[in-house]
Amino acid sequence: MKRKVIVGGILTAVLALAACGGGGGDGGSGTGDASAQIQVGSLYEPSNLDNTNGGGQGVTEAFNGNVYEGLFKLTDDGKVEPLLATRYVVSPDGLTYTVTLRDGVKFHSGKSLTSADVKYSIEKVTAEKSQSARKSSFEVIKSIATPDAKTVVVTLSSKSISFVYNLSYIWVINSDAKNLDTSEDGTGPYKLTAWKRGSTLTLAKFDGYWGDAPKNSGVVFHYFTEATALNNALLTNQVDVVTSEQSPDALKQFDNADYKISNGKSTTKLLLAFNDKVAPFNKVEVRKAVTSAIDNKKLLSSIWGEYGTLIGSMVPPTDPWYEDLTKANPYDPALAKRELAAAGLPNGFSFTLDTPNYDPHPTAATFIKSELAKVGITVKINVITADEWYTKVYKNHDFVATMQEHVNDRDVVWYGDPTFYWGYDNPQVTAWVKQAEQSSTTDEQTALLKKVNAQIAADAASDWLYLYPQIVVASSKLSGYPVNGLNSQFYAYGITKS
Amino acid sequence: MTRYLLRRLAFLVVSLFLASVVLFLLLRLLPGDPANALLSVGATPEQIAAARHQIGTDRPLVEQFLPWLGDLVTFSFGTSFVSSLPVGPEIASRLAVTVPLTLLAFVLALVIAVPVGFVAAWRSRTWYGTLLSGVSQLGIAVPAFWIGILLVTVFALQWRVFPAGGFPSSDWAVPSEALRSLTLPVVTIALVMSASLIRYVRSATLDVLGSDYLRTARSLGSSFFGAVWRHGVRNGSVPVVSILGIELATTFLGAVVVESVFALPGLGSMLTKGIAQHDYPVIQGVLFVSTLGVLVVGLLADLAQRLIDPRLRAGAVS
């Protein structure tokens, strides 16, 4: 399984966040059979069923929006919509959020939803022992009040424009629920009926659901540890859909009328990250030279064929502040040589590239090495394990350059933190990031973060090699599935099988 | 025989204890911190310290070792760092896949290897005798995952007669379904296993066929098969049985590759996942059960040899 870096929480599972998407897949006309059970194949089995206890991306994939719901929901195309909340009011100073809950919502156990459950659920994420990747986003919460059963009032210590978006990650859980590691009590359209560890997780339609009933009778997630076995299951109709294909080579066998291949938008970026604090990468010219010397397009096609995209900076297209910045540092070896000369290194230099030992890093590192050799830069590849990466690079900042996948959406803000592992330190960017979070409107936030994005590209803070594709392969009988899989979510209630 | 048995059982307990110490220490000598594996990359040093405290890896080794020893005696195997779930019940559920897989493969391998090995020896100078031993040589060189992929391609993807992988979520509730899922993995393991078994059976048979006692028996009027049956099988099976023990143990441990090719929720896949997540209780638990399995198989093989060959029993008493 691929290891990813979540920077929102930061580097956790890079893939987890990368898989953001919107729901909706391809259509979802209503011609399907409502009694059909949908068989979903995935490589990401939850380690437990509690997302505040390190359940991993698998539990998000299976449960988010299906079993548990939030006050708000992130659609497959990255928009935030009310779900268990019907409306919210923000005080003029931007510090108090008053949220009104939907009527008639029941937990799977039969209890009605109240504001106490919402308070409990938020506090579960922010609790000391919580292992939620989202914990740090809620440090701004000062207090939560529940004046009546339908109203939740959250007071913040400073303005946070992302607060409503962040709330979309909080699952509302019955405050009386026990054993959430192995069972659940949510409000979603499905309830958990069985979890056979190492094999399958079964969800069935919840009859007391407050909203529209799912378009199928239930979903079985089948878990595989090996991509070939997963693809074979799709070929033999054991599963109807594979949530995320990890290799373009596997796609040829599905290139026929029996299957549909969708090329969705991911949020996983492959980065060549420099240590911007140490020589020679403390010089903008050197970073720009390296960036311009590497043909990212060629690298992408050698790994992903016709899939994936170049973005030229840290922001993926599903983030509201996306801009195509591929022209900021074009592939141009002659330019690279001029930049090197400007940096006082006309004969190049050599550096060590700390390369995680799992795909695609070793392949990409070899490619980078040969590209940089053409402009006189010598790369020494140092292969390290994920653990070593975490300790050496992430914690101790003991590196010159490294490679990593960053999976989260909306994670450009890490360039505003000079203590982050890559050591990028531009006070103007730090100020913009801070102002963006404090802004009163999303337009203001968007404008500021666009400036951040452009500035880090101008500074070649890192080399954003490419954005991963998000490839979903399904039987052609299936429709209505999410294609972007934003942040690993996989809304199953709209899926129909004909 | 009783004294021998007691001695062997004592040896088994001591071995298990030593294994538990070695397993425990080796895991803790490995680089990497399980607390890191539990947290997202943005975790603060305080969060990491809290996670270490929660799973107990911040305690002195002795204080970690004694509870583990206690867990072993009760077969509960402690609680997974990652899932906070008890390890014992999961091992039990995984064994419900791995044990039938291994045993069925073992039986099938025997069914293939004994007659083939015998014929390969008995007719060693004919073309088919040579062919049989040639094919078995080849079989040893072929990796299990390759045979697995080949079987999947033919029987699952082309002919659709068996599933390509997976195991029924209802486990053994519908035995025919479970058996159908196990067929290709069982055949895969059995083919690999029988390749080496054939060679042992063949060489044991050659020894027997060239032996003085067989010639004597025949000179006293026994038919060829009668002599082989009365004297040869017993003599020939002593070396084969000890090999069988080793083979069975190897198969049990090697099931991990086959389980991954066929997406089976067995002990092997549990181990791989545990290793990837630095989940010490899971790794320790699985390896301990495997060690126990190997030791028990070894003991049974020894006992079987003694039952077959009275000379070994005599040796033990003296």
UniProtKB/TrEMBL annotation, chain A:
GO terms for cellular component: ATP-binding cassette (ABC) transporter complex; periplasmic space. It is found in: Cell membrane. Its main location: membrane. It holds the Pfam family SBP_bac_5. SUPFAM superfamilies: Periplasmic binding protein-like II. The keyword Cell inner membrane does not apply. One of its GO terms (biological process) is peptide transport. Residues 79-409 form the Solute-binding protein family domain. Keywords: Signal. Residues 1-18 form the signal peptide. It is a lipid-anchor. CDD domains: PBP2_NikA_DppA_OppA_like_6 (cd08494). One of its GO terms (molecular function) is peptide transmembrane transporter activity. Belongs to the bacterial solute-binding protein 5 family. This is ABC transporter substrate-binding protein. It comes from Cryptosporangium phraense.
TrEMBL record, chain B:
Residues 95-301 form the ABC transmembrane type-1 domain. It comes from the Bacteria. GO terms for biological process: transmembrane transport. The keyword Membrane applies. InterPro entries: BPD_transp_1_N, MetI-like, MetI-like_sf. The chain crosses the membrane at residues 9-30, 103-122, 134-162, 182-201, 240-262, 282-303. It is a multi-pass membrane protein. SUPFAM superfamilies: MetI-like (SSF161098). It is found in: Cell membrane. Keywords: Cell membrane, Membrane, Transmembrane, Transmembrane helix, Transport. Belongs to the binding-protein-dependent transport system permease family. This is ABC transporter permease. It comes from Cryptosporangium phraense.
